[in-house]
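Title: Comparing notes on inverse folding

I've been comparing how different people in this forum approach sequence design from structure. To keep things fair, I'm posting one structure and asking everyone to reply with a full sequence. Here's the target:
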């Protein structure tokens, strides 16, 4: 079977201009090069070139997951409510969850992640310690009704994820399964040609303990992380600033109206909250001199309301409203107070989410629930708070830290027994007694990886894929008339016979200039041009990344490429 793909028959329509709504490089280029098309907000169609890249990434992921002994399965994307009700996530996910009803009125959801369903499958299939450990994975479409799906496939509302789950009878077993995944992820991202860091992470809505993220540094990333220029220390700022998570029980309360003028004083705030003006407050969101501010944070930086009053004497304090969050999807709350009280942190996304919902009333004097410690949640829900800023000393070596943006491409968790407890997942132990299973969960954003790779490897001319991921190994261009076309097709057949994946641009009536521009945009790593020296059997081989060109005989070019 010929591997030669002719451009004249390929469904690809390249665009010269960036799509109007595109903000990130990968979004612009993947659309312009004809890899994806937007179907609806955050919902993308993968066209032939894009599907090839997506499949190449999936292949690498599969190979490395299989190599650690994980078994591939495919669980449904359309899921019943009950297991998610049991775990609490039917509610906890809030607006992120796509919920729907069947014809009989029963509740369903489109799976955002599958811990519940995998736990049930293993409960059904594994009954003895002899059946464990087991690692299962799938590459499945996930659904999350993201608030701002605006960076193309980087943040879809429908997207492809590889998710896997490990099931062990012992804590040591879980640590080992986690280590296997961690190593597999390192191999996967290295093979994909991604520059990445492994950072400790908050476990967020997943619950559980140890958790690390794989971050691909890129300007378009929505994560901020600190990176030590001198040693290998790196951490997600969320993890550095909040070393613990808020319990699942935290849910948004109703909107409350403050019976105060638009600019409340510390006294009116305190009265409204039902605390003395000398109280210690945690995580009340207000605006101070126009900046969104968290009054009080847990740990030793908690703020005495009375003292805050003194600090803020000349400042204008206002309550936050929905407008304050409109352009702040990441809900960064910052506070720089006078007199050395300097706090900068990124809130736990869940608190911020609650806050955003509740401030949705968008009136002055609206107070956000779930932001006041003691009333909305307990201080013990936080273990530690460290504040981090650019230039702060690295905890490992003391060098000044750098703050950078990155794309979260993977995330691994030691879940522990959270889901096993929910579903009473036990197996018969060696001693004949039931043993509660301990779990890990591990995700890779397969469709996001396409965009992350594009972000990291593209240049002004267009996309520029590493060979293993590219839609073809070589892009042959017939730059001329019949003679060049004949040579291009002939070389293409030879390359294909040698096992290469070949894309050949033999489109009649298309100028060499347009073909070159398209080749650069599409980003196949090697470009072979049959041009003005075709009569002598001389072609030009160009490296897409370096731009280096060489004139070679056909035979030389073929041996160079194979
Ligand atoms: P983010 O912080 O970017 O919202 P997440 O932490 O919510 O991601 P996880 O629940 O950890 O995501 O899911 C595992 C992986 O799935 C992520 O590491 C990421 O690569 C990918 N992913 C998550 N959400 C999306 C999305 N909306 N579109 C594409 N990929 C996604
Ligand atoms: Mg998310
Ligand atoms: Mg995340
Ligand atoms: Mg994550």
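Reply #1:
Here's my take.
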């Amino acid at each position: 079977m010929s591997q030669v793909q002719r451009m004249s028959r390929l469904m690809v329509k390249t665009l010269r201009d960036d799509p109007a709504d595109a903000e990130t490089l990968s979004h612009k280029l993947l659309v312009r090069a004809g890899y994806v098309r937007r179907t609806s907000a955050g919902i993308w169609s993968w066209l032939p070139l894009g599907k090839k890249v997506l499949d190449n990434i999936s292949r690498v992921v599969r190979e490395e997951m299989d190599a650690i002994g994980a078994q591939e399965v495919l669980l449904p994307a359309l899921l019943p409510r009950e297991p998610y009700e049991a775990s609490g996530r039917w509610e906890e996910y809030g607006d992120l969850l796509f919920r729907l009803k069947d014809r009989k009125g029963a509740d369903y959801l489109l799976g955002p992640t599958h811990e519940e369903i995998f736990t049930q499958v293993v409960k059904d299939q594994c009954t003895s310690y002899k059946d464990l450990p087991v690692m299962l994975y799938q590459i499945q479409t996930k659904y999350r009704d993201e608030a701002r799906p605006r960076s193309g496939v980087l943040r879809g509302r429908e997207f492809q994820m590889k998710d896997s789950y490990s099931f062990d009878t012992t804590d040591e077993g879980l640590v080992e399964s986690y280590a296997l995944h961690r190593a597999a992820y390192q191999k996967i991202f290295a093979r994909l040609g991604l520059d990445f860091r492994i950072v400790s992470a908050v476990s967020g809505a997943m619950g559980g303990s140890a958790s690390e993220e794989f971050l691909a540094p890129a300007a378009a990333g929505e994560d901020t992380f600190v990176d030590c220029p001198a040693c290998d220390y790196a951490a997600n700022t969320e993890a550095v600033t909040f070393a613990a998570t808020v319990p699942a029980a935290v849910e948004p309360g109703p909107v409350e109206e403050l019976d105060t003028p638009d600019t409340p004083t510390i006294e009116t705030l305190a009265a409204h909250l039902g605390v003395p003006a000398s109280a210690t407050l945690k995580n009340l969101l207000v605006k101070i001199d126009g900046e969104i501010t968290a009054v009080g944070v847990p740990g030793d930086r908690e703020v005495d309301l009375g003292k805050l009053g003194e600090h803020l004497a000349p400042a204008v304090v206002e309550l936050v409203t929905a407008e304050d969050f409109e352009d702040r999807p990441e809900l960064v709350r910052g506070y720089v107070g006078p007199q050395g009280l300097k706090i900068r942190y990124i809130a736990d996304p869940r608190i911020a989410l609650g806050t955003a919902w509740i401030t949705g009333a968008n009136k002055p004097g609206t107070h956000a629930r779930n932001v006041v410690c003691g009333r909305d949640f307990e201080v013990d829900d936080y273990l530690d708070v460290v504040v981090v800023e650019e230039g702060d000393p690295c905890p490992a070596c003391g060098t000044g830290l750098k703050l950078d943006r990155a794309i979260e491409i993977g995330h691994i968790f030691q879940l522990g027994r959270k889901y096993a407890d929910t579903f009473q997942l036990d197996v018969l132990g060696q001693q004949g007694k039931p043993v509660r299973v301990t779990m890990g969960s591990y995700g890779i954003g397969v469709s996001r990886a396409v965009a992350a790779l594009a972000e990291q490897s593209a240049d002004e001319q267009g996309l520029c894929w590493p060979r293993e991921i590219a839609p073809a190994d070589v892009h042959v261009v017939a730059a001329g008339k019949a003679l060049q076309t004949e040579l291009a097709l002939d070389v293409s057949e030879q390359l294909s016979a040698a096992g290469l994946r070949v894309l050949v641009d033999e489109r009649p009536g298309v100028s060499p200039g347009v073909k070159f521009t398209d080749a650069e945009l599409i980003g196949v790593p090697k470009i072979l041009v049959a041009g003005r020296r075709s009569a002598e059997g001389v072609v030009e081989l160009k490296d897409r990344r370096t731009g280096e060109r060489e004139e070679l005989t056909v035979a030389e070019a073929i041996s160079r490429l194979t």
